[in-house]
Structure prediction request, 302 residues.
Amino acid sequence: MALPDLNLLVVLDALLAEGSVAGAARRLRLSPSAMSRALGRVRQATGDPLLVRAGRGVVPTPRAAELRERVRQVVEDASAVLRPDDRIDLGTLVRTYTLRTSDGFVETFGADLLSRVADEAPGVRLFFLQKTDKDSTPLRDGRVDLETGIIEAATGPEVRSQALFRDRLVGVVRMGHPLVQKPLTAAAWSQAAHVLVSRSGLEEGAVDRPFLPPGTQRGVGTIVSGFSTALSLVRASDLVATVPDRHTSSLRDGLFSFPLPTPSEAFTVSMLWHPRMDSDPGHRWLRSCVRQVCGQSAGSRP
Prediction:
């Protein structure tokens, strides 16, 4: 069975609301003759004359009077489906968002983000997952709502992103470490025992490797999977760590940080999400919270 022409609902709504062909024509910006033809199609579809002559005007039939509110509601509902939904009541929003980030991101920005969300939307909870790889599948299948990180070739081509802040690498040692008791040279830095951060557990997969000169060699004391673990080892040993500056600012309290004695590239930390969440009002609000919290924190550092 063929579907009826749903455009006739808009015509019918205008006719019933205006109570005249001329008024409906003006409302829909049609000529009177075009509206008359449209009325003929509506009458054929409904099997009812709808508007009939009464003196110099027209009056609705009982069927038209019965349909007036129903048609109005259907047209309003359809219009709402086909326009962006910007409405959101944060005070009544109940939702859980899962963010996949590094431990450094949570340590640096997590408390401020949780506080902001609690102030604006008390019914919203944030769950943080450790980011162990660059696979975009968790975003694609909905297990993760938002990620933070550096956009790389492994990032899914459909993933949306927005820059949060620029960052750079710094070296970190414990206070009083022999390495920084005298002017630091590139040779002394490379020969020291380093703790590398690598999600794969391999030296070649060190997360700082893409931002250091090709062929950079370091003495590898150990390899760990996260910045927090690396810095905890630095705190209790003579190991040297290379970590992102802003990303790990709160993790480095009580440690000595220094500019690397070898060239390194700055990089951009972004938030990433799947395009199906692009227009969701709650997700847009969450992204604005993350953007503002990171902007405020980043702006407070030189």
User: Anything to note?
Assistant: Confidence is low (pLDDT under 50) at residues 298-302. Residues 190 and 212 are 12 Å apart (CA to CA). Residues 62-81 form the longest helix (20 residues). The first strand starts at residue 51 and ends at 54.
